[in-house]
Amino acid sequence: MAETEEAVRCTAVTKEFGTGGTVRALDAVDLTLRAGEFFSLLGPSGSGKTTLLRLIAGFERPTRGRIELAGRDVTALAPHRRDVHTVFQDYALFPHMTVEQNVAYALTVRGVRKPERTARAREALATVRLDGFAARRPDALSGGQRQRVALARALVDRPAVLLLDEPLGALDLRLRQEMQTELKELQRTTGITFLLVTHDQEEALTMSDRVAVVSDGRIEQTGPPLEVYERPATAFVAGFVGTTNLLRGEAAVRVVGRPGAYSIRPERIRLADPADAPPLDGERTVTGRIADIVHAGAHTRFTIALPHGDRLTVHRQNLAELPPTARPEAEIRLVWDEKDAFPVPG
Amino acid sequence: MRRAGAGGGAGGARLRLAALLGPPLLWLTLAYLGSLAVLLLSAFWTTDSFTSDVVRTWNTDNIQELLTTPVYRTIALRTLAIAVAVTLLDALLALPMAFCMARVASPRWRRPLLVAVLTPLWASYLVKAYAWRVMLSEDGVVNSLLSPLGLHGPGYGTPAVVLVLAYLWLPYMILPVYAALERLPERTLEASADLGAGTWRTLRSVVLPAVRPALFAGSVFTFSLSLGDYITVQIVGGKTQLLGNAIASQVTLDLPMAAALSAVPVVLIVCYLAAVRRAGALDAL
Q1: Chain-chain contact of A109 with B190 (C-beta, under 8 angstroms)
Q2: B257-280 confidence digits (pLDDT tens)
Q3: What CATH number belongs to A270-339?
Q4: Running DSSP on this structure, what letter comes out for residue B139?
Q5: Of the candidates B194, B205, B210, which has its C-beta nearest A86's C-beta?
Q6: Do B124 and B185 have their domain in common?
Q7: Does B133 lie in the same domain as B19?
Q8: CB–CB of B196 and A106 under 8 A?
Q9: Residues of chain B above pLDDT 90, percent
Q10: What is the model's pLDDT at position A110?
Q11: Is position B60 within any domain?
């Protein structure tokens, strides 16, 4: 891929906080964002993903390493000299300005004249469906509306990269799902590179072209969402992205039939009657006892207790009603394709 | 029945509220506003020039004398100018100091700095004024510090009055500005930089609007305290006369005239408060 098609490149970026570098937030992180992609940094809180975002924005300087934007070294550049805008978690709107003044701020600062400024601010507000809110103050808006103002403000002068720091964290579920669709749509139509920081794996999986899973200041795996979900590179990724059954050591030998560490997704395990015919070639089966049943709407979550105290979680899509035999304490047979027991290092 | 019960409850609450607010309101109207009203009323009385007794006959001689005598106009304008100068000087000093305290200093240093700003308020006003008198004297600290640079201190006079008053009232300006700056979220400043604003632009477009109400709030103190002061000017003012001095010297001779004179700062402060209110600064108090 050509140099110019890289929007962001981080090379061996390390960030230490505290006197003498007592806390290492990022440990020699390498990351490359292609121009025009929707990229997510997914990780638990405290994993360093927000620190990485702040380094790219320029609010912090890396202790070691190099940050490039579109092939240009910006490691020591102040935030206002980078062609990057941020949508903050708490939106950080200017309380003393109207919505329109907020949105036009990047243009005002650059000395764009008022008629053009107003026109472009209105245009940006229209893209986030906030026409007619121009004269309001931020404190007269709902959370979702503030979120849109923050988006419009960051998009008004078409930065090369848009950084989004948990932008949907403060919204309720419905609004969040609505905004996920809108964000994705906005990214597609503008063609701007989006870097989203989130701890919500569903958010990362549904919106992104590529995902990087971050843990303890390191990137564990980078790849398209499906690949990260289907072929987790480490046990951490397997456990953090979606739910999974992690089996290692003795348990792996007992359940999977081989030594090592394996991940089996709960939805890949089929429930069957113990009296049913033996499994086909390439299938693995164990029998156990239903320990718990949780109805979760579209699917039902079974906890199956196996002999020797092993436990497996099984998700069954509620395509039809549960058979009457599926009740706690019932004997049950579990079947899965041997390929679905995916080996995970670590 | 429920409605009657609710009404009785509201009545009880109203009674309790009246009992709670009654005494302080009575104090405010009688002792505070009442004395002010009597003062302003007495401006329209006169004095027997022979016995110096107050004669309670209604006339506007004092007001006319006040408005037509050039000396009074000069004193009033000088007082106003000094109050404005003190306020501006305090605002200029308080902004960077409060910014350092709230934004630059580490949280560990914030409290000691705040205490350092507040401590002078606990020392006696007179002690501080006399300390400045000593410092500003011909062979005082100020002159000995400035002489190597070929400069000379202000000595006693109007500049010294501005300087000392600005020193005395500075904490009243720093505190509200510091509070406003501390409340300003770091993210807002970052957002400004993120959107392309340099340091000065952020100061002008984000920080200053955020502290403007606090500056006005602080200026209410510095302005009105300066208007009423008459002791500092006696200590470091040389021959300078302010409204306060005129009032003080008239109190024993001609009380109604003193009352008329003291109406001037009251009117000025009311005008100032009205202007500040229009700027929306009192919402923050």
Answers
A1: no
A2: 888 888 888 888 888 888 888 876
A3: 2.40.50.140
A4: T
A5: B194
A6: yes
A7: no
A8: yes
A9: 27
A10: 92
A11: no
Instruction: Please tell me the distance from the alpha carbon of residue A84 to that of residue B84, in angstroms, as a whole number.
Output: 44
Q: Which whole-number Å values give the CA distances from B281 to A138, B211, B224, B266, in the listed order?
A: 19, 10, 16, 20
pLDDT of residue A218: 94
* B120 and B180 belong to one structural domain: yes
CA distance B285 to B83: 21
The A residues from 105 to 134 touching B (CB cutoff 8 Å) are 105-106, 108-110
pLDDT in tens, A31-85: 999 999 999 999 999 899 999 999 999 999 999 999 999 999 999 999 999 999 9
* Partner-chain contact B190 A59, CB within 8 Å: yes
Q: Which of A79, A84, A92 sits opposite B188 (nearest CB)?
A: A92
Looking at beta carbons, which residues of chain B come within 8 Å of A79? Answer: 190, 193-194
Q: Which residues contact B70 (CB under 8 A, 6 or more apart)?
A: none
B213 → chain A, closest CA residue: A96
Fold of A3-240: Rossmann fold (3.40.50)
Domain that includes residue B23, residue range: 4-11+15-32
> B169 and B115: one domain?
yes
Using a CB-CB cut-off of 8 Å, the residues of chain B touching A154 are 194-195
Residue of A nearest to B211 (CA): A96
Q: B112 and B19: one domain?
A: no
Structural element, H or E, at residue A292: strand A283-296
Q: C-alpha distances in angstroms, A74 versus A37, A48, A54, A213, B195? A: 20, 20, 13, 24, 16
pTM, full prediction: 0.78
Q: A346 or A290: which carries more pLDDT confidence?
A: A290
Q: How confident is the model at residue B4 (pLDDT cuts 50, 70, 90)?
A: very low
**Greater pLDDT, A169 or A155:** A155
- How many inter-chain contacts (A to B, CB under 8 Å) are there? 62
B220-251 as b/e, with b when 16 or more CB fall inside 10 Å?
bbbbbbbbbbbebbbbbbeebbbbbbbbbebe
Provide the pLDDT for residue A35. Answer: 93
Nearest chain A residue to B191 by CA: give it: A92
Contact criterion met (CB < 8 Å) for B193 and A80: yes
Domain definitions of chain A by residue range: 3-240, 270-339
Taking residues A158-163, what's their average pLDDT? 94
Q: What is the pLDDT of residues B97-121, one digit of tens each?
A: 999 998 888 888 888 998 998 888 8
Q: What angle do CA B87, B93, B95 make, to 5 degrees?
A: 100
Closest-CA residue of chain B to A104: B195
Q: Distance (Å) from the C-alpha of residue A163 to the closest C-alpha of chain B?
A: 10
Give a yes or no: residue B23 inside a domain: yes
Q: Are residues B24 and B119 in the same domain?
A: no
Based on the structure, what is the number of domains in chain B? 2
Is residue B225 a part of any domain in this protein? Answer: yes
Stretch B80-100: mean pLDDT, rounded? 94
Token pair listed for A294: 């949780």
B28 found inside a domain: yes
